[in-house]
């Protein structure tokens, strides 16, 4: 939920204004291009369309694209001109879109974490039963419908201003001689409810999901290490060197996975926590938060829409390959090799940025059956690409 208050900011010098315009323009441009690239990549790449998680990625990119096109420009105009340039109705619509789209973006991040939890922490059959096409559609619908109950419905009805109408009028009259200045303030119930729905509950679910993903991946790595040591007891010295190399590779892989999860959660909290903490605290300190701090927290949240394509797509090998094909006009060098081609079966699976070490691996003594090996290729629901 992103209530925007247009308190008059201090006047900028010309260099400050130019620097601010350049920065805001770069944020909007990078956000538009990054999210468009994600959407085009999934539309053009058949392998990416087979992964259920990528439907959340595309819907997330669409929400962030709308934030970049419908929300950021108005915020930039208000920040630079320091007053409203439209009427009260358009102000309410613009603010409702702000709350709707940014909340939708956050709820998509929550759904992605839950999808990863089922894909990584559960058996493949459980994942297929949990993440059916109907359930995916319902989750996507919820990401767009739930925000409407804390955006257009209460804002257009004026529920957010109950009990503080006099404060809003005083802020509007003191902030500018322009009676159409867009001032948006929220009472305590609205601030608490919206912050819970749009940030604190999704944050709690994401922390739980990613914590379980991390623990599960570490446990799988430990099990594989134990199996390899047991299976490699009677293997010659040359094979032992190969096993050591594979164990080192898995250790590096798990370290990378842990870092990726930390980056995802770190960026999300860094971008949105300042705003939602301020949003909850402000009504309880008589709306004394400085306008400059509000603007900084708000745009830090907007920047999350620019970072999402990087965190959830650019860090993924399959997406990077699709991007290179698009940007390099389909050069054969970047074409995807067949997943059923010759070569050793994969022992790791990268699911949109986090790495899942499989519960079984192909040991040097070949103890796995052909049926087990085939199941690895057939399980395309929870598997995306080999590392």
Estimate nothing, just give the exact number of structural domains. Answer: 1
CATH topology: Rhopdopsin 7-helix transmembrane proteins
Strand content: under 5%
Query: Span from first to last CA?
Result: 38 Å
CATH superfamily membership, which one?
Rhodopsin 7-helix transmembrane proteins
Helix content range of the residues, please?
A: 55-70%
Order of SSEs, N→C? HHHHHHHHHHHHEEH
Subcellular location: Cell membrane; Endosome membrane
GO molecular function: G protein-coupled serotonin receptor activity
Transmembrane segments: 20-43, 55-77, 97-115, 136-156, 190-210, 260-281, 293-315
Keywords: Cell membrane, Disulfide bond, Endosome, G-protein coupled receptor, Glycoprotein, Membrane, Receptor, Transducer, Transmembrane, Transmembrane helix
Describe the structure.
The chain is mostly helical and 387 residues long. It has one domain (14-378): Rhodopsin 7-helix transmembrane proteins (Rhopdopsin 7-helix transmembrane proteins, Up-down Bundle). 69% of the residues lie in helices and 2% in strands. It is built from 13 helices and two strands. It has a two-stranded antiparallel sheet with strand order 1-2. Helix 1 packs antiparallel against helix 3 and helix 3 (53-81) runs antiparallel to helix 11. 36% of the residues are buried. The chain crosses the membrane at residues 20-43, 55-77, 97-115, 136-156, 190-210, 260-281, 293-315. It is a multi-pass membrane protein. This is 5-hydroxytryptamine receptor 4.
List the helices and strands and how they pair.
Elements: H1 14-44, H2 46-49, H3 53-81, H4 88-121, H5 124-130, H6 133-145, H7 152-157, H8 165-175, H9 188-231, H10 237-281, H11 291-314, H12 317-327, E1 348-351, E2 354-357, H13 370-378
Antiparallel strand pairs: 1-2
